[in-house]
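Troubleshooting log. The previous structure file for this entry was overwritten by mistake, so regenerating from the original sequence record. Sequence copied from the archived sheet and checked twice against the printout by T.R.
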Amino acid sequence: MSKLRVLVLLHPEQEPPASSKGFTEQEALAWKTGYDVVKTLRGSGHEVRVLGVQHELRPIRDEIESFKADVVFNLLEEFHGETAYDQNVASYLELVRIPFTGCNPRGLMLARGKDLSKKLLSYHRIPVPAFAVFPLRRKVKRPARLQFPLIVKSLSMDASVGIAQKSLVDSDEKLAERVDFIHERLGTAAIAEQYIEGRELYVGVLGNERLRVLPVWELQFGDGSRIATEKLKFDVKYQEKRGIIQGPAKDLAPEIEARIKSLAKRICRNLELDGYSRIDFRLSAEGVPYFIEANPNPEISRDEVFAESAMHDGLTYSEMLNRILALGVNRARVRGIE
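Regenerated output below.
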């Protein structure tokens, strides 16, 4: 593709250093995505500028105008410390009529609420676990239809924030304790979902109107774990100790793999996701792929699920990032923004 002036937006704490030397793998987690993206885009010949954003929108517009940016590479996952505000930043980029990468604001909104996305997809006959929402400052009362075991999560936060082994509950007492934990520690409503015993599968999807589904990826828990906790996902030493590995899903029956990929496309279209996304499933022992959640704008560092599955599908990391750039530019062109 032609060389572009690319403005990379990210959280200030995720601004990458000039070099990755001297940092441990654990220390690099905070800024690794930004580092990989910036270094690779520059290596592709693009002119790249990085802007850390947290509390003010004005710096975005000032930087777009002074840099004369062609496109914004949007790595923001929160604003004002609120994950729910990521859609507002995307809306702002639309209003100032600048092409940007990743998901559109409506898709971000529909995917953000775990209850809303499940209701929409259940209507479209996509298998979802039974669930109930427990709002803040309400007494915890489990609906009779919701049977144990259950997994308790924040209704709106992603990246497994707040998920621990204690999130898997098997009694009303433990359910109430974990819901209270979500309310008090995270300040959000809680959702309790039917726990699906089975395989944890992730499916990357790349595209706007035409969707490319990447190979099905699997998280293998190793010893003692049954769920993807925050510690399991982000503690490197814990991963090594427990034997946690991720890679292509093996021994999937062709018809089940085809169904999972078909569901991933349907989910993206029903939730209006574009750019790039990751859909998480639980595959039950009976071979039913249950939708767990949709992740618009997932992590795309070199060694994360999305990039590794793209590589397995024949896309180099540089090709993948340039494809993401092109999708942002093309979406703007279709909408008459350019």
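The mean pLDDT is 91. Archived copy saved in two places this time.
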